[in-house]
Amino acid sequence: MCRPGCRWTSVTWHPAARVGRRDRDSHWGSDVITARAAATFEPVGRSVATARGFVRDTLQGWGLAELIDDAVVLTSELVTNAVIHAGTSADVLCLRDESGVRVEVVDRHPERELPFVPTRRGTPDPDSEGGRGLMLCAVLSAGWGVEYTSSDKRVWFRLEERAQPVGTRSAGPVLPDDQLPVSDSRVRVAVVQVDRSDTITSWNEDAEALFAYTTDQVIGKPLTDLAAWPHTPGTGTGIAEALRLSRWEGSYGLRAADGRTVPVYACHLRIRDASGEPSTVCLLVRERERAVLQSPLRGPVVHGDHGEGSGGDPLEGLLGSPAPDDLDGLLQRTVERARDMLDGDAAYLLLATDDETELEVRASTGLPSARQRFARVPVETASGRYGSARMPAVHEDLAAVPGAVPLLSGTGMHSVVTVPLKVEGRLTGSLGVASETPGRYGNEEALRLQFAADRIALAVESARLTELERLRRGSLSFLVEASELLAGTLDPDQTLALMAQMTVPNLANWCAVYTMPEADADPVLSYVLHEDEERIDGIKSLLERVPPPDPDVRLGVRPWNAPADAAHNTALRSSLRRLALGGLRQPGGEVPLVATAAAVGGETVVFPLLARNRVIGLLVLGRQTDERFRQETLELAEDLSRRAALALDNARLYRERTTISQSLQRSLLPPELPDIDGVEVEVIYRAAGEGNEVGGDFYDLFPIREGAFGFAIGDVCGTGPEAAAVTGLARHALRLLAREGLGGPAVLERLNTAILEEGSRARFLTLLYGELWPRPEGGALLKMVCAGHPLPLRLKQNGHVTAATEPQPLLGVIEDLELFEEEFLLERGDVLLCVTDGVTERREGSRMLGDDGLAEVLGGCTGLTAGAVAARVLRAVERFAADSPSDDMAILTLRVPED
């Protein structure tokens, strides 16, 4: 029975489809709905990818991993029809029952007819532009249909779980013994369990044997601390994200106890205990033993009478396994299926660059060392060029046409067939299959491979564009973060370290930075970093033996073969020496260099560090394997080098100016304080402002004549270099005038005149000036003038604190000053404390330390030495408020010892 306003239309039925009443609330057919998930997607292009992710995540969470590939492909086609062709939003509903899953896609365009042209057999025409999504439904699903209402159109498909023997997940054919995977020792399966915070809670004996950590060493530590995760900015899943997926399978590295990285193949399964607490169980084997854990590749999908077009083709179902937006997985699966389809010994796939002038190696199988992944070859036909890119080509024997396919040179391959990948007539890549047997392939194989390539070209290009967009977004985020880090320091050494740490391991396996102290000087090796810390010293020793790269800016970004050549020659000499010594290990420095050969054996690229139209250094990035740098990585590294060069030059200029400034400031400070018999002296000085050694506060203590010493402590209005200039004038004038035999009032009056003569640069000055005469019988005679300065405090042995002088007018304000001198005797055990207003005006909110607070601190210093008194005053000032002092501060302490 149909609902009012509803028309049920069964367009195409698979023989295995169940026909029954559709109950939205609880049933479809005879199966009970056990789970449901729904989402709505707006009519924009990115909704298709979002819908794929929604269906993938939903089925993964329901434990239907074997249905994900087909469901994602069909959902992608149907949502594309809705949001792109119908131009409306789309609702996606996933229904789980006891035997499978049903996915419905609803759009708001009910008048739209079925988009295909029936053929005489009543099926969609494969050559028509429309209806291909429904063709996939007919081929891949167990049943499908279309339902119309007055307001929407609902296209649905159903996928059945495949029946499997109890206790098995999948089964494969019986293989001959010589085709079984090889293991050189007992296979060890490490079982590691981590909790919701990624902390290791279980570590079995095989894990101890594989990675050399005992259980006690790793329990309670994050697994992310041990994982060496392969990462390219903006792409891939991190270890933390992988541990939170319901199931994850793939390769990464774990750092062993000896520092080396052990490549492993891992299978993660997320579980929960009886209390509902989630955790992840990780099964790990050596990478070369991955067959123990790796899920077998899904074979071609054949659906009874509707298998037309699938026909056992090994590339069938490739669009959904792996998902199209997983480019590396898609390309690797493609070359493996292409090799199997033509029964070849090797296969490879290249993708075209944006300008279509070059092809870049992206995936290969059966070739040594991945045949330098990301290596580039030109497209156009010429000597040594890749001439078979735009049209299918067959080479019966490469020995007869050497150089026809440079990628296969030296691999032992003879027969090869290559076909282009094209989208709307535009070259997007090239797919090739090779055999060691001459004459193996002909035009028939080329047609089969071209047919397969045409079927996957659009998916590959879509995945490539998705990856490119991810890379661009990741690159932008990477550069923003790098710019913030580089802008956060003005230390050249820290800038060098940041430059290297941002490139390793994100962009390269190792990095070296050369700097140029002067414009025409040779580059100097300044910093080396490798992702394996144990190899840093070896690479540094190797690079020190190699002439640095040429800093000529006209050379631009370029490869640099010297490190790899030097490492190779060192390894060769070492091998010959061992042979000459009868296999004995040679002493000396050759051993670490030999171990370094593998670390620098890949491509090495030099980037000039250009700032303000001159080269200030060189950034060297290297690979340790045959894999090349991809173009996007080189462009990102070049952008980083420009930002790093400017940051390094700014830091260098800042250091030079700071050094000059500090040298000038140090010249304003008095030299070493003289020793005074019978009197202890201590001075503490703090200048406000970062990088300032001298400010507006100053002090001095100097001999005037035999048995007489002058001392001064003052405060110039303001802080920084302007105040420091008046400081220098005051300190030097005091010394000259005092040694002329003038008394304290005359010295200060003439200094006042000198300050006023500075005109607009003049600043008023508070100053305490005194003369000290130690007495042979003990004690010291003091004569002092206090011109507007905080009064000095005198501490008696009994703890009594008094002001030692009277206040008088400050300097630099009025011309005619009449100052007077005060005289008193500093007895045994007495202390004279002189400070600037940075001490007495220390504030915390509305509170101020003041003269009374300082007197209270000094009153508790009875019996302390001059140094201890000064230290206690400084500590009291710092503890009075939470923030750092904002004013210059000087403390001068004189004390006559008891003995």
How would you describe what is shown here?
It is elongated, with a radius of gyration of 41 Å. Helix content is 30%, strand content 26%. A hairpin with a 5-residue loop joins strand 30 (765-774) and strand 31. The protein is of the alpha+beta class and 899 residues long. The chain is built from 18 helices and 38 strands. The chain has a six-stranded antiparallel β-sheet with strand order 1-8-9-7-6-5, covered by helices on one side. It folds into five domains: 33-111 and 132-162, Heat Shock Protein 90 (2-Layer Sandwich), CATH 3.30.565.10; 190-292, PAS domain (Beta-Lactamase); 323-469, 2-Layer Sandwich (Beta-Lactamase), CATH 3.30.450; 489-581 and 591-659, Beta-Lactamase; 669-896, Phosphatase 2c, domain 1.
Provide a quick synopsis of the model.
By secondary structure, this protein is α+β, with helices and mostly antiparallel strands.
Largest sheet: 6 strands, antiparallel
CATH topology of the largest domain: Phosphatase 2c, domain 1
The backbone outline, from C-alpha atoms, is elongated
- The total domain count is 5
The appropriate CATH architecture of the largest domain is 4-Layer Sandwich
- What's the level 1 CATH class of the largest domain? Alpha Beta
Note poorly predicted spans: 1-30, 115-130, 165-169, 232-236, 297-325, 381-388, 583-591
Q: Proportion of β residues? A: 25-35%
Amino-to-carboxy terminus distance? 117 Å
Mean pLDDT: 79
Helix content: 25-40%
Count of runs of 4 or more consecutive helical residues: 18
The side-by-side strand order for the widest beta sheet comes to 1-8-9-7-6-5
**Alpha-beta classification:** alpha+beta
Overall strand count: 38
Quick one: CATH superfamily of the largest domain? PPM-type phosphatase domain
Pfam family, one: SpoIIE
Domain PAS: 191-221
Protein name: SpoIIE family protein phosphatase
Keywords: Hydrolase
